[in-house]
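# step 3/5: fold
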Amino acid sequence: MNATLMERDAMDRKIISVSKKRQITIPLKYYKHLGLDNEVECTLEDGAIVIRPLNRDSGEFSVEILKDLISQGYSGDELVKKFEAQSKNIKKAVTHMLEDADAIAAGEKESESFEDVFDPEN
């Protein structure tokens, strides 16, 4: 077995403890290797818990943000700065929407009704 494959095998498998509160500690080498921050995405796949770096990419809004900023007359470095600021705002808004959705799903918050959302008189 070559050294690269042995290194990968050592990195790929680690037995970790689960606390009484169902918490785990991600090994530091995994944390650093994946560039993790304070949140991760957790999914169930084929009978396994899969933890991935959270990628709340606002990329799908990038074209719209750029079009809007260009129409406002921004260009060059100023365009880049405004784009970065707008992208951060999108990420914050998406994070807030996800938190609201989680609270609604947990029964901690009431959702809007169909009429609240689509009634033109509201």
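# step 4/5: annotate
Residues 76-105 form the longest helix (30 residues).
# step 5/5: archive (pending)
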